[in-house]
Amino acid sequence: MPNEILRDQIKPAIKSLIYPLYEKRLMRQLKDAKTPQHVGVILDGNRRWAKSNFGRPEDGHRRGAEKIVELLDWCEESDVGIITLWLLSTDNLTRDPEELDLLLKIIAGAVDYLAAQKRWEVRALGALDLLPEWLQAGLKAAEQASQGCSSIIVNVAIGYGGRREIVDAVRDYIKAGVEADRSADEIAQELTIAQIDKHLYTKGAPDPELVIRTSGEQRLSGFLLWQSAHSEFYFCEAYWPDFRRVDFLRALRAYAQRHRRFGQ
Asked: Which of 53, 59, 92, 168 is catalytic?
């Protein structure tokens, strides 16, 4: 038993010495590497983190919200221009009402905090009409308060689902055609990939070159389903609240080492 206790005390001490050295090594490797302009992140594992730390789900959500600012600091250091954070899926909206209400309040607080920093331009995207009116109003206020802050554009995907986004894009395209007095045949003939792009939640932004998912799950679950056709993916074992700068740098290194062929 004493030996086990000693090992538990020594391990953190060793890690605290090794990780700064490893980070410096990664930074040297990335010095002349190409950085993705747009990074998407699936912030997964908050509830499992809370369970593994004997906490409540809301403890994981709060710790996950705090981690966002650290991530944005790392993005600034690495010259990432746009980051899309998946904070809440359309599937999440079916959770227990009490837990969902608390989660929405935590998300609202996190978005308000980001906007108040005046360091990043916050943009909300998703099926926002599915959210409570108080949250819709809060997201709009955050967008207005942070408009023009050009360090990094932070897309907060709330009530987001990839299939829903594509359906909404097609619906908006058809609606625009009808309002322009085009016939059904003309609307169908003019439908192209570029037209769909114009009606996505992320319209006007480049597609993400890199998508990161935490918690060890190796799937997109519909995140940026249309936009990620040519993205590189990086799956990290750490739960989102445990995601470290070294994990982010590893993701950038993995991206830099890949040869992007775009189907060629």
From this structure: 92
